[in-house]
Amino acid sequence: RMETDCNPMELPNNTGFEEDSDYRDFEGTDVKDMRLEAEAVVNDVLFAVSNMFVSKTLPCAEDVAYINVETREKNRYCLELTEAGLRVVAYDFDQTDDRLQTPYHETVYSLLDSLSPAYREVFGNALLQRLEALKKDSQS
Q1: Predicted model pTM
Q2: Distance of CA 34 to the CA centre of its chain
Q3: What is residue 31's predicted lDDT score, i.e. its pLDDT?
């Protein structure tokens, strides 16, 4: 075994990385996390929009992912997902416009609610149906 100048107390517990891992592997893990977060966002609201998918063109990074969405009104947006939330960064798929200063939304629901009346209607109807189903279940 090779000796290292590393104090084991300085390392976080349960890192799960083998000794021969290098930084690139670690970075790759973080990238997957933000992409997974973006995929979860898409899966949550896909039923209420015309099209939505994580961008394969724009780079995902440790702290950012991009999501393309087309509303039922046929408007296209590119959304940026970061720790700060979601915001519109362009009015087309796979684009970013640095001049756009759009507000961050804490949730995808809030963002889509502000962009798409049809989203609001479909999401509201789905919610009502779920509540009706719960009501029936509790009565039986």
Answers
A1: 0.73
A2: 7
A3: 52
Would residue 4 count as lying in a domain? Answer: no
Mean pLDDT of all residues in 64-77:
98
CATH, residue 123: 3.30.2280.10
Domain count, the chain: 1
Count other C-beta atoms under 10 Å from residue 3's C-beta: 5
Residue 64 lies in a domain: yes
Q: CA-CA distance, 46 to 6, in Å (whole number)?
A: 47
Q: Look at residue 7 and tell me if it is in a domain.
A: no
**φ, ψ dihedrals at 124, nearest 5°:** -60, -45
- pLDDT tens, 29-49? 445 589 999 999 999 999 999
Segment 76-83 long-range contacts (CB within 8 Å, at least 24 positions apart): 77/115, 79/108, 79/111, 81/34, 81/37, 81/38, 81/41
pLDDT above 90 covers what percent of the chain?
72
